[in-house]
Amino acid sequence: MSTDQTTFDPAVQDQLHTELSYADLPGFDTELLLAQGHRAARRRTMSRVAGATAAVVALAIGGYAVAGNLGLGNGSTPPATGTSTKVDATPVTAKLEPATSLAENGQTIDPGRYGRLAVTWDPAPKTAGSDLTYSTYAEDGTLTTIGGSSTQGLAPNAVSWGTSGPDSHVIVGVLPRSAQRFSVVLPQDPQGGHSSTSAQSALPGSPWQAFGVFFADGGDVDRIVDILWQDTSGRIFDKDGSEVPSVSLGDKAGSRVYLAQRAGVMGIFTADGDHTSSWLDDTDGAARLHPVLDIGRGSAATMDGFFAMLVPAGSSKPQLTPGAKVLGADDPTITPIPGSGQAVLWAHYTATGTSSAPSFTTISWVGPDGTPARVTKY
Questions:
Q1: Which domain of life is it from (predicted)?
Q2: Of 12, 156, 169, 345, which is least surrounded by CB within 10 A?
Q3: Which of these three, 220, 237, 254, is where a domain ends?
């Protein structure tokens, strides 16, 4: 139920209107009022920017936030002076999916007791700085500690991991919470091999997620060059948290090509989780002028392929001459990779999977200076 308690008399409104119409009121200086208003608006804007900057710096120094709401645009109100905010200091544990055996060089490598890995994050560790505990777990869930480390001082987008040595065949650690997928970069080996299997799992309430990798070759735990990961927006970062130049191709596969020069690789992540990479240098250390990705998936009868080659940014007029095994190919496209000085010349194609011959016999384009370029071997 509502009650109208208005006591306003319409006659008073009429009288005020009449008297004010004839009143000698001072005029407004429009320019002065606008100038004062603009100065006030600038002061308010600067105050908001300064506050936001201070909050971000505080986060960067700490590496991550433990206490939850820090007022970063989420509409939360800081507690009043004299009140306290209780923080949930309960450790959280993520148990990774058990690793499976790997077959390589005619041998089967079993992960043994290191096949079940777990990571525990403690938001309020008793030992200064050490907030991560790495464990194995038994079938009944019992944890056995194998090591630990700290995220203190770790960049928000960085990766941290540890190992029990080559005999364990595993690494275990944390990725940023926003990581969708990751890839371990190992040194180039002309003999091939070096298979591995990996797992990820959330650490609820923390800025991290747990991950583990089981390698067929135990020595690979000490050979890691980099760990590249892709976040939920598609961007790609390296182990130190630096963003790697990359570009979305806008194709149906959701492909994103990256150029990780410090790690020495170019590669591609797709929306369904597939990843392939290629070295920027030959096995003798000589730089490849135009590194290539040539990927095929499917049956022996018909294979879906993807071809990509690095060319200088600003190149145009791409052309591909299909090899004998190619049944059909899309028109090639050149897409620049921002921040790299390079572009990717790419196309999807279909082919028979029974031939190891090159997919394309000639790749050509016009360079940024107008000079035609042509590659027949890659």
A1: Bacteria
A2: 12
A3: 237
Domain end (from 196, 215, 237): 237
Q: Are residues 145 and 253 in the same domain?
A: no
The backbone torsions φ and ψ at residue 46, rounded to the nearest 5 degrees and listed phi first, read -60, -35
Q: Please, which residues have CB within 8 angstroms of residue 9's CB and are 6 or more apart in sequence? A: none
Contact 153, 132 (CB under 8 A): no
CA dihedral 249, 250, 253, 258 (to 10 degrees): 30
Residue 127 pLDDT: 67
The residue written with tokens 């309960």 in the block is 90
Do 367 and 312 share a structural domain? yes
Q: Of residues 313 and 62, which shows the higher confidence score?
A: 313
Domain carrying residue 125 = 89-237
| Judgement on whether residues 266 and 203 belong to the same structural domain of the protein | no
Rounded CA separation 162/164 (Å): 7
Instruction: Give dist(CA 135, CA 293) in Å, integer.
Output: 38
Which tens digits make up the pLDDT trace of 88-117?
689 999 999 999 999 988 899 999 999 999
In a domain, 58, yes or no: no
Number of domains within the chain: 2
Domain shared by 113 and 216, yes or no: yes
**124 Cα distance to chain centroid:** 27
218 plus 259 within the same structural domain: no
Q: In the chain, helix, strand, coil percent, each to 5?
A: 15, 40, 45
DSSP per residue, 99-127? PPPEEETTEEE--GGGGSEEEEE-SS-SS
Name residue, tokens 């730089």. Answer: 287
Do residue 219 and residue 250 come from a single domain? no
Beta bridge partners of 107: 104
pTM above 0.85, yes or no: no
Residue with the larger pLDDT of the pair 33 and 287: 287
